[in-house]
Amino acid sequence: MFKNYKPSKYSSYLFFILPIIFFFLIDMSRETDIWFLLSHGREVLRSGIPNTEFLTIHNDFSFVMQQWLSSTIFYIFYNYLGNIGLYIFIFVINLLIIFFLYKLCMLITNKKVYASVLITVLTDLLLELLFIVPRPQIFSILILVIELYLLELFIKNKSNKSIYFIVLLSILLINLHSSIWPILFIFMGPYLAELLLKKDKRFLKLLIIFIVSILVGFINPYGLENMTYFMRSYGVNGINTNIIEMHHIGFVDAATTWLSILLIVYSIVIYYLSYKNRKELSIHQVLFLLGTTFMAYLNLRNSSLLFISTLPFISKYVRIKDGKDKSIPVKTYVICSMIVITFFVGSIINKNYVLKSNTEKVVEYLNKNTDKNIKLYTDFDEGPYLEFNNYKVYIDTRAEVFLKSNNKKEDILLEYLDLITNKLDINKFLDKYNFDYLLVADKAVLYKHLKKDKSYELVYDYKEYYLFKRVN
Length: 472
Hints:
The chain has about 475 residues and is mainly α. It has 22 helices and 5 strands. It has a 5-stranded mixed β-sheet with strand order 2-1-3-5-4. Helix 6 packs parallel to helix 8 (about 180-195) and helix 13 packs parallel to helix 15 (about 305-315).
């Protein structure tokens, strides 16, 4: 079917409009974590980098803002340019991811344009589906793609000195998203293994860069505590079983089912293509394939690592050859530009760029009827928006912050999980904290208790949310 299909370089470039169009279909308000990230950035600019937790009712909790630089960048764009500024910034970061994915594929395929464009577009579409949202992971994905490009360049070009930039990437990643910082070294592992097995003299050079990159990790506001953050925050049963992105492959609910099916199908296709072309695989490619598949199956969030570390290597299996460079009619560019503009305008009309919360009306009520000093209970997902509006809450979506291993005080997360699963004495819980207000969902265990408890009255409800006030 494609035997005689030989697209020109410029024809191939037209496929780049697909991820651009798909980006404009993404609803940025789906990401609730942005609110605590903006609160973090605001605090950094107001008071400097904190060492104690400042958003909740819990006092003197030890705190590591493991994504302080990402939060600050997000807040600067949001504060000075509003929703549209943050939206455009995320768009630009995604364009950079596309650019370096393309450069990586071009390197792997020996400059086969069509194959590189096709795989770059496919990889970014998968990333946009799950990961291109206003969270620190956009920075870590970009940094890891750049790292792969530098490592591949190093393997192919013995005299290449750009490999030293990995040291800079280490400094950036430890400050932008320290929980992902160890992945920088995991990605270097397959290349070190290949050089060692081949007895290549460059092994020592890469090993030195590996060690120096670890040492420069100390260049962050929290030192060793930030570098070891991942050790205290992942692998915890309460987090792994209750946060979707931390689930292992399975069919627990609709979200994990679709993600698991996607991951299984993806793995089957990638392994089939790899086996069919096994003679072309290098040692580091095999190690990436095995290692990142294992990581993705353990933790659905790691599927982004599987996408960026395996699909680019598959680009050389695309057998369609490039044709002669032919200019494209101006009207084609005009039509494509009009399509992109149409989707952008549609995104603006639909307000996909606007950060929203389901509890905006609740905040309006609280602003009119109380002050910011109240003790407020919120469930896990509702906490960040209330915090951004300067209310102190019980818990929010920063799951690892509420582990004793991090805050050095108390396992609030485990207490909360016992509460919502009805394993906790609710009266003792309420007596312990003496909340002034409690914001609960209609299906929550706490809601069923409060509507019968005469010590609390329902003062406001909006959609599925109910706000109770303590009356005595």
